[in-house]
Amino acid sequence: MSPDRLKALLEALATGQASVDETLARLEQFPMDALLQEEGVVARLDTHRCLRHGFPEVVLAQGKQYRHLQAIVERALKDDATLLITRLSRKQRLRLMAQFPLLEHAVGTRCLYRQLEQKAAEGLVGVLCAGTSDIAVAEEAALVARLMGARVETYYDAGVAGLHRLLGAVELLRTARVFVVVAGMEGAMPSVVGGLVDRPVIAVPTSSGYGTAFQGVAALLGMLNSCAANVTVVNIDNGFGAGYVAGLINRWGVSDGKQ
C-alpha cells in the first residue's frame, strides 16, 4: 500500500465512490499479512513498509525453501506495488520466471523485479566500480536506485591499478548527487572518489580478491579506515543496501528541489 494508493482509497470513501465494506476489504491485510503453511506462519509480510519508507518490503531469496519463496512472491504480486527479489540462485530465478511471467530479470544480477509505476527518473546517482569482477554488485546497486526513482549512470572498471581511467568519469563526478563505489582487493577506490567530490560516497566492499583479501574483509577494513570524510561503508557485496541508501539520499535531494 503506497501513500498515493491509500490516499486514493480514502478519497473514494469520502466521496462515496467506494463503500465502507469495500474499503475494509482493501485494508483487510494491512499493515501485516501472515502467510500460513503446514508448519505454521512462515512469513509476515509488512504491507505498511511503503507508507513508512517509501519503498515496499524487499524479498531476500537466499536461504528460503522454494515453496516459502513462491508463496511470498505470489502474495506480494497481488499488491499494486513494485516488487524486488534479491539473492536468487539460478534455479530459483528460472522457476519463479516460469511461474510468474510478470517478473523481469535484471541481467547481470541475482535479482527479479516487477515495476508498476514508471515515473520519470529524477536526480542522479553515480555507480562506479573498480574492476569487471565487481560489476554484478554494482549492477544490483544501480537496479535498486532506479526502482526507487533515481536516474542512474554507471562507470565500470576504473580502479586504482589504472587510475587515469577515472578521468573519463569527470562529468559524472561533477554532477551526481550521491555515489556508490564498489571495489574488492584492497578497496582503495572509494577513498579516491571521496577525495574528488563534495557529495556522499557509499563504499561497497566485494569478495573479489586473492587469499589475504579474506573474501572481502580486507576491502571492508580498508574502506572503514578511509581518510575521506564523505565515505561511508555497507557490508561485503551489499549492492542492495548501497543502492537503497543512495536512492533515499537522491529522493531527499529531489524533494528539496536540489540538482
Q: How many beta strands in the DSSP annotation?
A: 11
Could you name the CATH topology of the largest domain? Rossmann fold
Structural class: alpha/beta
In the CATH classification, which architecture of the largest domain applies? 3-Layer(aba) Sandwich
If helices are DSSP runs of H or I spanning 4 or more residues, what is the number of helices?
Answer: 10
CATH class of the largest domain: Alpha Beta
Low-confidence stretches: none
Q: Give, in spatial order, the strands making up the sheet with the most strands.
A: 8-7-9-10-11
Distance N to C terminus: 29 Å
Mean pLDDT: 87
The main pleated sheet reads as: 5 strands, parallel
**How much β-strand is present in the residues?**
15-25%
The radius of gyration computed from the alpha-carbon positions, rounded to a whole number of angstroms, is 20 Å
